[in-house]
Amino acid sequence: MLPSFVGSFMELIVGVVYPVYGSFKTLQIKDKGADDARWLPYWILFSLFSSSEFLLDCIFAAWMPLWYELKVLFVLWLQPTYFNGAALVYNKYLEPLIASKSDFIDEQAELVLKKARNISADDLTQLIDWVSTKGQALTGVSTGASSATKSTASTPAADEVQDEKPEEPEVVSSTEAEPAETKKAQ
């Protein structure tokens, strides 16, 4: 069984480094044709896999034996040079799904871009305040000036607790303890 860091390193080499070089070689071919697009389905599926990988690791890595080995094999299966699994998944499932939703996706992307172009500093300030308020409400923690005034203000209950501290025991010096011990010994 591979440790997680070895599996992640192998996945990086097999899933990114080799495909980047393969994509580079494809772009270097003088005769441009259908071969140009052979890596595109791989990159689309690898991107989707990579973006969900953290969640998948959290779910499967702890209890599924050979999880990292399976991930490396899956990435190898996706590559067009070996099994061409990415083209199979893309053509059979992903392309029809995205094609059926493309109008909606385009509308939403346009809406987000329009809002992003018209964003102002006031909008960002309002967003930060809203996120801070929601975060404080969720965690029950207050920040900023309100917490500073709470920590410096003294309450009667806090003063009473400080008054009720136990007294420290008296420390007896070693010279005072010796005569008592010598009397016991005699």
Structure characterization notes:
It is a single chain. By secondary structure, the chain is an all-alpha fold. The protein has a domain at 4-100. The protein contains eight helices and no strands. α2 packs across α4 (85-117).
Count of beta strands: 0
Share of β-strand residues: under 5%
Order of helices and strands: HHHHHHHH
Helix percentage range: over 70%
How far the N terminus sits from the C terminus, by CA atoms, comes to 73 Å
Shape: extended
Tally of helical segments: 8
Low-confidence stretches: 145-161
Task: Walk me through the topology.
Layout: H1 4-28, H2 40-60, H3 67-78, H4 85-117, H5 121-139, H6 145-152, H7 156-163, H8 174-185
Entry keywords:
single chain, 74% helix, 186 residues, mainly alpha
Compact summary:
The protein is an all-alpha fold and 186 residues long.
